[in-house]
Amino acid sequence: MREKEQVINEIIQNEWVMFSSVNKAAGQSFKPSEHPSCQDFPDEFRLHRESKLLPWSRQTLNSYLKDLVRARDLGKNLMTYKYARMDNLIPCENKSPRIEAIADQLVKWQKGFMEKYPGIMSGARPLSGGRPGVDWASFENYLRCELETYSEKTLEYLFLDIMTMKQQGKSMSEEVYAHLVGKKGYVSLDQAEDKMN
Q1: How many CA atoms within 13 Å lie on the side-chain side of 13?
Q2: Mean pLDDT value across residues 42-71
Q3: What are the CA-CA distances from residue 129 to residues 16, 66, 146, 187, 194 (Å)?
Q4: pLDDT tens-digit map of 105-161
């Protein structure tokens, strides 16, 4: 497990370098002024990214880390690309069919989680819409635009992770939020839901 934690730490370090320079590189158009940015809350950024990455297998994490390092070495900021796509400022550069398959299942899990835990999700992004430049902050649009930044190998491994979890009757959304509320001091999702209702 320590090796997995080390890979996650390296991923987050690379993501933070990219994320913290998004507006410097691209201007304020990617960040609506009425919403605070995760750039103002590095600890929250780390917590949310860590929670998202923990359910991934080691091979998926290693592949994604390679994507980040490759992009860094080429001087490409994957976070700038993601937010530019969310704001419909650039065309899609990744047409992988795996994006659709991954997004469909993750949206289903997120929808189920939102219905099961409305208190926890009361301040969350809207679920869908996914139209770049229109409802750019929806879970679905954010997800799809992020998936576009992954290599085909990372998408392949992530798809396998998702299919494995589905076969085991698990939900990646539940795994993500269980870690998140645990870090906030709750012993379970149910306890967090009770406190937030």
Answers
A1: 8
A2: 96
A3: 27, 31, 15, 33, 29
A4: 999 999 999 999 999 999 888 898 655 555 567 899 899 999 999 999 999 999 999
Residue 126 DSSP symbol? P
Backbone angles phi, psi at 139, to 5 degrees: -55, -45
**Whats the size of the chain, residue-wise?**
197
Q: Which residues contact 21 (CB under 8 A, 6 or more apart)?
A: 77, 80
Nearest by Cα to 65 from 127, 18, 100, 109: 18
Residue 90 has a CB neighbour count (10 Å cut-off) of: 11
Which residue range(s) make up the domain with 10? 2-196
Residue written as tokens 């991923």?
11
The structure tokens listed for 135 are 């409802």
Question: How many domains does the chain fold into?
Answer: 1
Q: How many whole angstroms separate alpha carbon 13 and alpha carbon 169? A: 32
pTM of the model: 0.88
Helix (H) or strand (E) holding 188: none
